[in-house]
Amino acid sequence: MILPIYTYGNAVLRKKTEQIRADYPELKTLINNMFETMIHADGVGLAAPQIGLAIRLLVIDLAPLAEDNPELGTFKIVMINPEILERSEEVIAGEEGCLSIPGIHETVIRAVQIKIKYFDSDFQEHTEVYKDYIARVVQHEYDHLEGHLFTDRVTPIRRQLLKSRLTNIIKGKTSCSYKVKIA
């Protein structure tokens, strides 16, 4: 089922999320719905707050990038209750966008490499190290679980320049090809 994506200004996007347990109601259905919603919106990642749930769950599927980056095309993951354990001191700037902030793309500085602990959809624990683009996407989605948006990470001058565009998103003055839930 395709769910509406909550846009900038919705309070749930600013909440620190709660951990979930293996007996979370209809977890597998929720995960499938999140993937379906993300794919329908042409995204590569989606965190639960973006569909209105303040829980520690995110999904990523980099298959849409396979044509230009074959090494990314097979990366598909569910992370439940993730916790970033380490971030490299080395950082890199890269452009980011977000389904919850339609039409805005900005340069964001992220750690090149991260170490993260999480549970998969079967509640098996994993600890992995990711780098480069995968690390960027994981950090972006992880930020959602902490109540942060990528626009929080741009320079103060860029944030000021974005103010009117963000206000327009709050007012519903934006166009998307997917269902949204306006603040």
List keywords for this structure.
two-stranded parallel ribbon, 183 residues, 9 strands, Peptide Deformylase, 5-stranded antiparallel β-sheet, globular, alpha+beta, 3 helices
Describe this structure in words.
The chain has 183 residues and is an alpha+beta fold. It has one domain: Alpha-Beta Complex (Peptide Deformylase). It is built from three helices and nine strands. The strands form three sheets. Strands 2-3-4-7-8 form a five-stranded antiparallel β-sheet, sandwiched between helices. A two-stranded parallel sheet has the order 1-9. Strands 5-6 form a two-stranded antiparallel ribbon. Strand 7 and strand 8 form a beta hairpin. It is globular. The protein starts with a strand and ends with a strand. The model has no long low-confidence stretch (mean pLDDT 97).
Which secondary structure elements does this structure contain, and how are they paired or packed?
Layout: E1 5-6, H1 27-40, E2 45-47, E3 57-61, E4 76-87, E5 91-98, E6 101-111, E7 113-119, E8 125-131, H2 132-145, H3 156-170, E9 180-181
Parallel strand pairs: 1-9
Antiparallel strand pairs: 2-3, 3-4, 4-7, 5-6, 7-8
Parts with pLDDT < 50 across at least 5 consecutive residues: none
Overall CATH architecture: Alpha-Beta Complex
Structural category: alpha+beta
CATH first level: which class?
A: Alpha Beta
Short recap of the structure:
With 183 residues, this protein is an alpha+beta fold. The protein is built from three helices and nine strands. A five-stranded antiparallel sheet has the order 2-3-4-7-8, sandwiched between helices. The protein has a two-stranded parallel ribbon with strand order 1-9.
